[in-house]
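pls design
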């Protein structure tokens, strides 16, 4: 065998070993999904990875001993085994949706750039035969963006990491795609197109202009049309930089809009539910379906801008016809309290806050907040870990903003009162449940007013933490806000349900 032949054999071994490493990494990823997301229905599958590893080890020994004939035979065996295993892994990948992949990497934070790069290499090995489109393109796009980003310590925004390091990594991906050559002029034209999308992102003033421009679907289509040329290092750097610009824009400008649309939809749905049967009002079935779909996709981390834009159009079409009746119902909340009813918010919340604080005092201060929230002393209160933390910051080891921590405990007390009064109303079976004459209805109307004030205050805190770049805190506050909205809406409907 000539030196050239032996060099080619060695190159074939290196290529096969690289594809094996990518497949092994992807196999580990699938096992992680099976461990952390049991409901994801990732099937068990046969794999020959252990046998392939042993075969490749034998190839290495053959090359070391200059036994080319044995090396060729073993490489043929390993190549066939790897092709079969890659097909099995690709079949399992069909069950891995882009939201599931994102959730995995958000939950499992102990990974390095090599894991992300090997995941991309595995998808590239599939692209040779099947191409990258649909969900697979979205997953690769996410992995590349995750690989390229770091968090700015001042603004909290996602920024592009060292370009030289990125070009080195992207160059390795590009070299794996044999036979691709891109003309420099063509590359510059594609980079200019991508830069144009980035300028559009920066120029978008509000949610309406962002969605009406169809920027995201147009940009996604442009990436699909690039095919494997997407992985040209210069083009790929431009792509991930634009991806980060969109990510930051959504985070900074549109999360509040998303919540506003959801809340306004909920108010319209509640107002329509409270109308007397004799006054059915306009058909809101389409709004209800859109709202439920947005909620479902939001929970699955799969909400798209077009879903939210559709819901927004429904809201704006129905608002003029339904908001007036909703306003009339809300006005009833402001009626004077019945005789004997507590006169102040503090007095109304006092018994619930006392029980809350007493239960929190009985817990182990050293236990993790989430574990404490699920303990025997606190389980019945349905608290979140952030509320346990608020108590500790106020009464155990003072830190943070005392006003915010106190507000969170008071909001938890509001939630306890809301649930208690909703339960009491649901248990009334006599005539007062129909006529709304029982004192509980007067108390509950006042409670819904307080709850609405707390919901508004939560909105201010969420906006403030988002502006400050404290996205972890913003997410926790948003969760508490949504829990209060859910319980408060149930009580509101009980109080204002039609009597005929």
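designed seq:
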């Amino acid at each position: 065998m000539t030196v050239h032949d032996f060099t080619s054999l060695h190159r074939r071994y290196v290529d096969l070993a690289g594809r094996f490493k990518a497949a092994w990494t992807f196999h580990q990823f699938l096992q992680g999904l099976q461990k952390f997301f049991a409901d994801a229905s990732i099937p068990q599958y046969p794999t020959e990875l252990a046998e392939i590893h042993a075969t490749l080890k034998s190839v290495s020994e053959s090359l070391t001993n200059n036994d080319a004939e044995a090396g060729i035979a073993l490489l043929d065996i390993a190549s066939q085994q790897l092709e079969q295993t890659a097909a099995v892994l690709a079949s399992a990948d069909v069950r891995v949706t882009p939201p599931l992949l994102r959730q995995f990497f958000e939950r499992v934070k102990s990974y390095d750039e090599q894991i992300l790069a090997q995941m991309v290499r595995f998808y590239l090995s599939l692209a040779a035969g099947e191409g990258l489109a649909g969900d697979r393109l979205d997953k690769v796009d996410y992995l590349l963006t995750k690989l390229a980003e770091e968090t700015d310590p001042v603004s909290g925004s996602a920024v592009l990491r060292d370009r030289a390091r990125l070009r080195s990594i992207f160059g390795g991906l590009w070299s794996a795609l044999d036979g691709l050559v891109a003309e420099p002029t063509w590359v510059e034209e594609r980079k200019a197109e991508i830069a144009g999308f980035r300028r559009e992102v920066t120029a978008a003033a509000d949610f309406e202009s962002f969605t009406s421009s169809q920027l995201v679907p147009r940009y996604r289509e442009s990436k699909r049309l690039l095919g494997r040329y997407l992985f040209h290092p210069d083009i790929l750097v431009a792509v991930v930089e634009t991806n980060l610009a969109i990510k930051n824009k959504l985070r900074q400008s549109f999360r509040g809009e998303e919540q506003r649309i959801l809340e306004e939809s909920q108010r319209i749905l509640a107002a329509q539910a409270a109308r007397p049967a004799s006054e059915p009002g306009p058909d809101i079935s389409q709004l209800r379906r859109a709202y439920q779909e947005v909620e479902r996709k939001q929970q699955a981390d799969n909400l798209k801008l077009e879903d939210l834009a559709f819901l927004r159009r429904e809201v704006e079409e129905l608002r003029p016809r339904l908001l007036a009746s909703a306003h009339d119902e809300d006005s009833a909340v402001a009626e004077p309290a019945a005789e004997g009813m507590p006169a102040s918010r503090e007095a109304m919340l006092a018994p619930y806050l006392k029980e809350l604080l007493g239960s929190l005092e009985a817990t182990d201060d050293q236990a993790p907040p989430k574990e404490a929230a699920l303990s025997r002393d606190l389980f019945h209160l349905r608290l979140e870990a952030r509320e346990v933390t608020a108590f500790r910051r106020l009464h155990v080891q003072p830190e943070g903003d005392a006003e915010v921590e106190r507000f969170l405990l008071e909001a938890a007390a509001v939630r306890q009162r809301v649930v208690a009064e909703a339960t009491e109303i649901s248990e009334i079976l006599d005539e007062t449940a129909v006529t709304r004459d029982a004192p509980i209805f007067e108390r509950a109307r006042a409670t819904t007013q307080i709850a609405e004030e707390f919901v508004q205050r939560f909105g201010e805190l969420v906006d403030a933490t988002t502006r400050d770049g404290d996205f972890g805190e913003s997410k926790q506050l948003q969760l508490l806000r949504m829990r209060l909205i859910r319980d408060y809406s149930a009580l509101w409907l009980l109080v204002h349900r039609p009597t005929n």
